[in-house]
Specification:
heterodimer; A: alpha/beta; Rossmann fold; 4 helices; B: mainly alpha; 2 strands; about 0% strand; transmembrane helix (chain B); transmembrane (chain B); Tripartite tricarboxylate transporter permease TctA (chain B)
Chain lengths: ~120, ~500
Amino acid sequence: MTVIVARTDTPESEAALSAGVAESRRRGEDLVVFNLDGVRLDPDDTVEGAPVSFEEPDPRDRDPVGSLLDTATRREASLIVIGLKRRSPTGKLLFGSMAQHVLLEANAPVLAVKAGAKPE
Amino acid sequence: MDQLQLLLEGFAGALTPMNLLWVLLGCLIGTAVGVLPGLGSSMAVALLLPMTFALDPTAAFILFAGVYFGGLFGDSTMGILMNTPGQASAIASTFEGHAMAKAGRAPQALAIAAIGAFLGGIVSAVAVTFAAPALAEFAANFGPAEFFALALLAFGAISSVVADSVVKGLTSLVLGLVLATVGVDPISGAERFTFGSMYLFDGVSLVVVVVGMLALGEVLKVATRIHRDPKPEQLGAPGSRKFLSKREFKDAAPAWARGAGIGLPFGVIPVGGAEVPTFLSYDVERRLDRRRRDPQFGKGAPRGLAGPEAAGNATTGMAMGALLALGLPVSATAAIMLAAFRQYGIQPGPLLFDTSADLVWPLLASFFIAMVVLLLINLPFAQLWAKLLLIPPPYLYAGIVVFCGLGIYATSPSMFDLLFFLGIGCLAFLMRRYAVPVAPLLIGMVLGPLAETSMRDALLGSNGDYSVFVAGPIPIVLYVLLLVVVAFKVRQVVVTRSRRDV
């Protein structure tokens, strides 16, 4: 069982990463960082002192979120952690939302974190 | 049931021993080339293009059909076993197919792919048999204005959909249009862009461009990467069970059906072939899978392989129908086939079903035969095909270059064409290196003259009145379709940017 964090370069994602580290420690499970943009953002093998493994979407896949959810199935994730940004309902209706896609289609529980809501 | 009668006559024409031999040979060659890493089905057709001119047209096209479909089977075999899809249309089936192979279910994955491709192909062959004559009848009303609109739709759709960057797609398209204008102008007889050289008088040979673009460019690219890319690893560890269980078959069956349904309409939409429908089908299967109690995607889901395979072959088969009935090539491979038709002085289009019925019906019948042959040579022996990888790459690629050169020299024995071929090969290499799609160039070169002459014919007929282009309902519908495609692309670009909110 693993905790999987969706990683991008946004502040929301930083918050999600911290929450993911905290959650994996609490559960005593491995942490997997999934780089949604296909670029590895964390140079070391540890994030905030916790050992992690990295996954990237297949560069040929057009749908990185789908790839994230597939990885979650494959690694038997017990929790998916994502960052969440406030957006207007119209914007989401017209252009879709990655976060919504994860929330609606994931088979594991999803923890959604907002930027700046880091537990100190 | 006119068509059935005609199709039966076609079978009579296709089932001669010689033609059967050509189908078999085509299927073998196509599968072999498709299996080789980095080489796809369009390359197989391009390689054979100069060679087939020694055959009579029916035999040549039957051979082509075998190669075309065989290449698709081979592409996905390699995608599954080694994660190296030969062509863009096999990418979508690689994801879950390779995951299945990794999980030790390679024989099952190959069987699901082969049956899916077979079913997709058969469904499309049936659809073509019944729809193509009707389509041709409808297209018989097309005048110059309609053909111009159709060509514009093809240009717009292919250059915006094939590449992720519209600029790259348009660049490629314009290069193709430029190549098409070289030579003597068919209407006024004036020389254009020949630079006074007599070699360019007849224009640029389509065969040279096709073989250079698809075969030489590909080989050059493989050659530059040969020691850089990690060697693909073969996962051939034969599983314990060789064949599909009944449950697996039942599991994949709805996906095959959905895939074929998604694939069919894309055969007549010029978006560069089977890449779009295969990804669409993959996405549908993935979303449906998530709603099931025990989701399989990510661990090797048979449905994620079955859908795209069926979709890919359904599109390819239907694309042949569009080519025969409308003269509209929707992908690079179809453009090659069109080039082959022209070489024989046959113009695919609405009149083809009347003027060359003795060619068309055996060709359609050979689709069915090719599908059965391919199923027979791929279902039990897919693992054997992987043995072709034992050929040392340097020999293989050198052999292909020699074969291309020979073919070019055989069609037009001149030094100039060979040098031109080399130049096109270098251009193709650069285009691949910078991810500029090749398909728009070929479509531009094939349809450029059609667009130009129809536009000028229409204007001549209307005494220079431009309103002739929007006079009828058909052109307006085609322009609206073009707008829809462009709007779709714009939305896609905006969405990928603003969707990111994680």
